[in-house]
Amino acid sequence: xxxxAYQTLYESSVAFGMRKALxxxxxxTDMQKKIEELEEEKKDLERQVNELKSKCDxxxxxxxxxxxxxxxxxxxxxxxxxRTNQQLKTQLEGIIQPSKK
Length: 101
Hints:
Blueprint: H1 3-100
């Protein structure tokens, strides 16, 4: 090969190397931008998770309190019905007993 051919080959390879280096740099920049976007999205999703956990905890607490109130109300109603039943039994026995005498 002649010196001119080697020089052309060298220039061509240098140009190729520069193109590849620029492509790699551009790819690196794009990747860094994508990483930043994904990290921001991750932060937003973590914030949403925390908000939803807080809401879930608040709902669970509210429902537990409601359940306690309902159970107390139910127990009071059962006690009331038992007292009423006992009073009615006593009255009924009072009505039936004098009849037998």
